[in-house]
Amino acid sequence: MSAQYTAVQWNRQKKLYDLVLIGTVAAFLITFAAATKIAFPLVTDEILLIRALGSAAFLLLHLILGIGPLCRLRPQFLPLLYNRRHAGVTCFFLALLHGALVVATYHAGSDTNPLVSIFVSSPLSPSVAGVPFQPFGFFALVILFLLAATSHDFWLANLSAPVWKALHMSVYFAYALLVLHVTFGVLQGEASWAYVGTMAAGLFIVLGLHLLAAHREKALDSAPSGVPSPKTSVESDGFLDACAVADIPEHRARIICLSGERVAIFKYAGKISAVSNVCQHQNGPLGEGKIIDGCVTCPWHGYQYHPDTGASPPPFTEKVPTFNVRVRGGRVLVHSQPNPAGIRVEPALIDS
Q1: Residues 200-228 pLDDT 10s
Q2: Which strand (E) or helix (H) includes residue 163?
Q3: Which of 14, 210, 230, 274 is the most buried (most CB within 10 A)?
């Protein structure tokens, strides 16, 4: 969706992103192949291509998993988030080509079904280096296929946002399987531990970014200077003192933590409205967006909602809960209980 809430297909920005993505992948494959030929002149073309495609897919998956926490830490990375699905589908196709070449090279010449051969060709052994690693890669590829096949908003709408989100969280299980696949594969095929060290560095970076982002989010929920938690009840009917009107930038929001839920309080055109901070598209932080064309616009993918109703402009049907608000003495009071999604709440007028 665009800022004007119109459907977007391959606009100029997405085309440029895809060109950069494809160009970067191609440059990596060429560089990897040239460096491998120099370091290992006797390597066959089949092995070279298998390693190049597998390395490209694994590296791209690291970048994909790093985009989310990077956006939480630095909003400048949000343009990457807009197009992360394209990178995910590219990662799957690289992994698919890698897997197809592995099957054709190592499993297609015997009487055993090639897919069955993946599971029986490497019997268990007491050595760590003898652990069968190809089944890990096979199951990871199955997960990546499911994620790529359901990456369109059609599936998001038909599966529902919670189910779709839960399905796509399985990318972390796929990543764990690939870490095992690469680790045990390297232990069997290479004598140098530098490869394992490189893989461990990638794992450390991904985990580190997620831990840093989680720490920041936790700090925001408890820090008065970040996402304040109103504590003082100033009304007998459930309204809480949230923040000062002056704390909210024009056409933007102040995010508070209220009854365990984040609420985005927007100031616009002399009025105050409050809605749930969670976008119905992919749980994006609405409070980090702004009012565009009279609508709260999610900073992740541009989904929009009317600030007084929490409903998307027709013909779209997404809705978020709203909160009753008051303005007294330059302070914003928010009711502790949300209204059902899409219920209109009269905006509070800012004291003149």
Answers
A1: 899 999 999 999 988 877 766 664 434 44
A2: helix 161-168
A3: 274
The span from the CA of 181 to the CA of 188, in Å, is 11
The residues, ordered by sequence, that sit 6+ positions from 270 with a Cβ below 8 Å of its Cβ are: 349, 350
DSSP category for residue 246: G
Decide if pLDDT at 260 tops 80.
no
Is the pLDDT at 140 greater than 90, yes or no?
A: yes
Residue appearing with tokens 């495609």: 53
The type of residue at 350 is I
pLDDT of residue 74: 83
SS3 state of residue 307: coil
**Given pLDDT bands bounded at 50, 70 and 90, which one contains residue 127?**
low
> Terminus-to-terminus CA distance in the chain, angstroms?
36
Q: What does the block give as tokens for 337?
A: 């209980």
Distance of CA 24 to the CA centre of its chain: 21
The helix/strand/coil state of 158 is helix
Angle value at C-alpha 41, between 35 and 47, nearest 5 degrees:
80
- The residue among 52, 188, 49, 199 whose CA lies nearest residue 121 is 188
DSSP character for 182?
H
Verdict on whether the full-model pTM lies above 0.85: no
Contact indicator for 347, 307 with CB cutoff of 8 Å: yes
Cα separation of 204 and 302, whole Å? 32
Cβ neighbours, 10 Å, residue 340? 9
What would the DSSP string read from start to end of 35-91?
Answer: HHHHH-TT--HHHHHHHHHHHHHHHHHHHHHHHHHHHHH-GGGHHHHHTHHHHHHHH
Lowest-confidence pick of 80-84, 144-148, 283-287, 316-320: 80-84
* Tokens of residue 143, six digits: 């997960």
